[in-house]
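Morning. Coffee machine broken again, so started the prediction first thing and wrote up yesterday's gels while waiting. Chain of 319 residues, entered below exactly as on the submission form.
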Amino acid sequence: MTQPQIVFLDRDTIAPHITLPKPDFVHEWINYGKTAADDVTDRLAGATIAITNKVRITADVLSSAPQLKLIAVAATGYDCVDVQACAERGIAVCNIRGYSVNTVPEHVFALILALRRGLVPYVQGTRDGAWQRAGQFCYFDTPIRDLSGAVMGIIGRGAIGQKVAALAQAFGMEVIFAARPGAPSSETHVEFDSFLARADVISLHCPLTDSTRGLLGAAAFTKMTRAPVVINTARGALIDLPALQTALATRQISGVGLDVAATEPPAADDLLMDLAQDPRVLLTPHIAWASDEAQSTLASQLIDVLNNFHAGHPINLLT
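Came back before lunch.
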């Protein structure tokens, strides 16, 4: 019997110093650091198991991969895979779950604290000699705001959103969760427009769908009466960039921390890169998830997915 062929299409999406264990069963393992869209079909032609983090696997690719039995997504989000086409062909799709429940919330608060306390301009100012020019023990170029007593608004009540809420409460913040636009307030969620008006900090932790694309656009920003800090570690397209640019220019928001982009990496001339020159904008390269601890957990769970599938009792199934 031919041994299963496992093809990892984008191994470089896990840091090189993170050890990736091997499955318990006999197999052929092929690593590709990166895979361009034009190369996916050829690289999966003989694959039994495909591993992808961000490389798209479309219905056309599947039609040319007759031996494919499993697609293991090395992440939680699986919008890179045509799940419906997989279901129609009897191909299992599994993802990784719960590995980033600590690292993403910690990154969220790193961004929040940096923005609310003006850390970047103050650090840069001291490097540029502003402290000496002030001529006293401190100076006040940028407002500093405490988190205690502020309202933390969270969009998305999954595991990460709830961990963000727990950290916010530890800082003494009041936590509110947003209801879906158009839905009324409930015991657990605040009507969306009221949510936007009440929040001092807004953090996005919802999936990207047709209904959430551009969720924070011009209409939403105009309702942010408290000029909040906005944080997005979920998906870039949840925020409309031209509307964000206007919101910064008109001070409808006081700052924004972004770890994601609609296209990653963004082009050098992308509007996002222009916005990143604003000191009120902190842009990090989609690394909120990427602590060593989280990556090690991901790698271990990925191999568990493969071992369990091969043993006939798959875990983390999406199809």
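The chain is about 30% helix and 15% strand. Going to sketch it on the whiteboard this afternoon.
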